[in-house]
Amino acid sequence: MELEHATADGTAVYVDRATGERGSKAPFFVVYATDAGETRWGYLCGNCETVDNAMDTMGRIECNVCGNIRKPEEWDAAHE
Question: With a cut of 50, which residues of the chain have pLDDT below it?
Answer without folding.
Answer: none
